[in-house]
Every structure is written in structure tokens, then in C-alpha cells.
């Protein structure tokens, strides 16, 4: 065995003659394997500037077709983009407790951990209470206009499912393959660092991922590195995924029920939010009204899960009743209307005697 370098630091392994263990070797390999260049080679996602993409265009081209996209010229205009250096965050919020892997620790302690982390699955700061703990952070960004219409907001902040998170992590951290909860879609804005994303549409299960039949459980490799080293090559064999590297100052839209994995390529800071836009209402209600919904609904107390679908539907009925109305069925044209309608070979110039149906 030889000395090896991890993130620029030289390490000398302990030599124990005659000891062979996959339980020790595999975590070590996951922790020390460098990010491979071929993992970053594919970038096949649409990229659109917020300066030219209007809200109606976004709805027609991405939200309704349920298609991912990276948005530029948006995050760079937030105060957070200019302010949120590590030095600023530590100076202003270093002693603020942050939620990390089920525990609270001061933000400055988490940054120190990140400096030294050589783990197979580095700890990830994923804090849904950041806006209450540090209101000035929430004031440093604004929800993009594409995502302002969020029907879960009708329930109020006390009853709606968890929806926004401050995310920080060292190189090699991230999120394993999953689908976002409650049939929501999401946006993720990178304020510092960069992230590699791999996404599959709802009907294509990623290689190495095994969801239960009812969707309540997902079995997958235990770490992100394990998936990339063991299964990334298999993405070439089946339906190709959507892939991209989201750079600092960019934002990715993750559509409803898309499978996705995200790997931090550098130390990163990001903001993410989930939402239920009107265009997705039918799908959200179908999800919430499943027979096993009490096991699937996420982000609300267990005691509220059984009645959550009814409460949400009531809120929509009270505030946006038009969204629950069934669209009128198009009636078939009468024989007279068919006879009077112009054929494909006819040109329609000026007055034509017929009816639109």
C-alpha cells in the first residue's frame, strides 16, 4: 500500500497483514475516489436566460410538459449571491444552530467539519428552519416569478408541508436518488459551488435504484459515490438521463416526480424550495388521495397526514375554486357544422361561413 492524497492532503494507511474486509474497503474507496471526468462530460439539459424566458413560456415549455431546465441570469441578481461568502456566513451566523443529519450544530462547527471531512457520505446541512433562525438570510433572496404560485401556500406556513431549505455541504456530499415529496416540483439555486445532477423521468427507474411497489420505500446504494462508481456507466445502456452541472449563480427546475441525484463538486451553499403549482394540482390531489397516502405524505406531522388531503382541497375550494372545476367537454360538431367548416385545402381569407368548435 502507498501513501495517497485526498483533496490535497497526504494520508498514510495503516498496514495490517492478512486482513481483508469489504466492510472496511468499500467505505474507504467511496471516501477517497476522485470525481471522474466522465461523470461530468454530459450536459444535455436546456439552459434558458431569465431575461428572455417569460412566465407563460416557462409554463408552456417546461412546467406543463414536466421538463427540467437550468435558468441563468436570475440568482446572480439576489443579494445572497454577492453576500453569502463563508466569511460572511460565519461572522453573521456562526453560532446559529443548523440542522445536520438529524442533529443541530453551530454553523461554524459544520464549516470546520467540512474542512476536514474525508467520509464515504459527508454530512449535509439541510435546514428547513433557517428563515426563522436567521430572517435576514431569507430576505437575501426572492422566489422567482416562475414559482410564485404555490397552492400549498393556501394552507399557511403552520399547516403547509415543509417547503424551503438552506443547504450546505463539502465536496462529495449531496442527495441520493429520490423523487420529491407530495408530487411537488422544485427549484434549487446554487449560490456557492457547483453540483452535478442526473435526472430520470417518473416512468424510468434509475439503475441501482429499487422502489417498493407502493412507493413508500426506496432501496439504493448507501452513498452517492457508490452509485457513481458502481452504476453511472449503466446510464449508457438504457434510456439516457438528463444530466448537467449547475454552476454557481444558476438554478435548476426539477419537475414533478422526476428521479434525481445531486453531487457537490465543491463546497457548496444553495437554497431549494418545493411547490405545488396550479398546473400540477390534478397530480398532487391524486398523490394525496392514494389509499396509502398516510404513509407517503411528507413534511407534515403524522397526526395531520390522515386529514391533510381534505384540508388542502378545502383550502383550494375556498381560495381558488376555479381550479377544481371540471373543464367543459368539447361537443362533437353537428353535421351542419362539419359541412360548413373549411377543408385543409381551402384558404381562409376574409369571411367564411362556419362555426368554430
Which keywords apply here?
357 residues, alpha+beta, seven-stranded mixed β-sheet, four-stranded antiparallel β-sheet, globular, disordered C terminus
What does this structure look like?
The structure is a single chain. Strands 3-4-15-10-17-8-7 form a seven-stranded mixed sheet, with no helix packed on it. It has a four-stranded antiparallel sheet with strand order 9-16-11-14, covered by helices on one side. The protein is built from twelve helices and 17 strands. It is of the alpha+beta class and 357 residues long. Helices cover 27% and strands 22% of the residues. It has helices at residues 22-32, 55-63, 79-83, 86-93, 107-116, 130-133, 135-138, 224-231, 281-288, 293-296, 302-319, 335-340; strands at 4-6, 9-11, 46-49, 69-72, 97-100, 103-106, 125-127, 164-169, 174-178, 185-192, 195-200, 210-211, 218-219, 242-246, 251-254, 259-264, 268-275.
Question: Can you give the helix content as a percent range?
Answer: 25-40%
Beta-strand fraction estimate = 15-25%
Mean pLDDT: 88
Low-pLDDT residue spans: 335-357
If helices are DSSP runs of H or I spanning 4 or more residues, what is the number of helices?
Answer: 12
Shape: globular
Strand order of the largest sheet: 3-4-15-10-17-8-7
Order of helices and strands: EEHEHEHHEEHEHHEEEEEEHEEEEHHHH
Oligomeric state:
single chain
Quote the distance from N terminus to C terminus: 77 Å
Class based on secondary structure composition and strand pairing: alpha+beta
Main β sheet profile = 7 strands, mixed
The overall strand count is 17
Q: What is the CA-atom radius of gyration, in angstroms?
A: 24 Å
Amino acid at each position: 500500500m502507498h501513501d495517497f492524497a485526498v483533496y490535497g492532503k497526504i494520508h498514510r494507511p495503516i498496514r495490517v497483514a492478512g486482513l481483508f474486509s469489504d466492510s472496511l474497503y468499500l467505505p474507504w474507496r467511496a471516501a477517497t475516489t476522485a470525481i471522474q471526468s466522465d461523470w461530468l462530460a454530459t450536459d444535455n439539459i436546456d439552459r434558458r436566460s431569465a431575461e428572455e424566458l417569460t412566465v407563460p413560456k416557462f409554463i408552456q415549455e417546461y412546467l406543463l410538459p414536466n421538463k427540467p431546465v437550468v435558468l441563468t441570469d436570475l440568482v446572480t441578481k439576489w443579494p445572497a449571491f454577492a453576500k453569502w461568502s463563508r466569511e460572511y456566513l460565519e461572522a453573521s451566523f456562526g453560532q446559529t444552530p443548523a440542522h445536520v443529519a438529524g442533529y443541530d450544530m453551530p454553523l461554524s462547527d459544520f464549516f470546520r467539519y467540512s474542512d476536514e471531512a474525508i467520509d464515504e457520505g459527508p454530512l449535509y446541512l439541510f435546514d428547513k428552519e433557517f428563515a426563522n433562525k436567521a430572517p435576514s438570510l431569507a430576505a437575501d433572496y426572492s422566489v422567482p416569478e416562475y414559482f410564485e404560485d404555490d397552492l400549498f401556500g393556501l394552507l399557511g406556513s403552520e399547516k403547509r408541508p415543509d417547503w424551503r431549505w438552506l443547504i450546505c455541504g463539502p465536496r462529495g456530499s449531496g442527495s441520493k436518488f429520490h423523487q420529491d415529496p407530495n408530487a411537488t416540483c422544485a427549484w434549487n439555486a446554487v449560490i456557492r459551488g457547483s453540483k452535478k445532477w442526473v435526472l430520470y423521468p417518473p416512468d424510468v427507474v434509475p439503475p441501482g435504484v429499487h422502489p417498493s411497489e407502493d412507493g413508500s420505500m426506496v432501496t439504493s446504494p448507501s452513498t452517492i459515490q457508490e452509485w457513481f462508481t458502481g452504476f453511472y456507466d449503466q446510464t449508457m445502456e438504457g434510456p439516457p438521463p438528463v444530466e448537467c452541472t449547475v454552476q454557481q449563480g444558476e438554478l435548476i427546475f426539477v419537475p414533478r416526480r422526476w428521479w434525481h441525484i445531486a453531487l457537490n463538486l465543491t463546497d457548496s451553499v444553495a437554497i431549494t424550495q418545493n411547490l405545488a403549482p396550479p398546473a400540477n394540482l390534478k397530480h398532487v390531489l391524486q398523490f394525496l388521495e392514494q389509499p396509502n397516502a398516510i404513509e407517503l405524505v411528507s413534511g407534515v406531522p403524522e397526526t395531520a397526514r390522515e386529514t391533510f388531503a381534505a384540508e388542502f382541497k378545502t383550502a383550494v375550494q375556498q381560495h381558488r375554486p376555479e381550479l377544481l372545476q371540471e373543464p367543459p367537454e368539447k361537443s362533437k360538431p353537428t353535421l351542419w357544422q362539419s359541412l360548413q367548416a373549411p377543408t385543409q385545402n381551402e384558404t381562409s381569407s376574409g369571411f367564411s361561413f362556419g362555426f368554430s368548435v
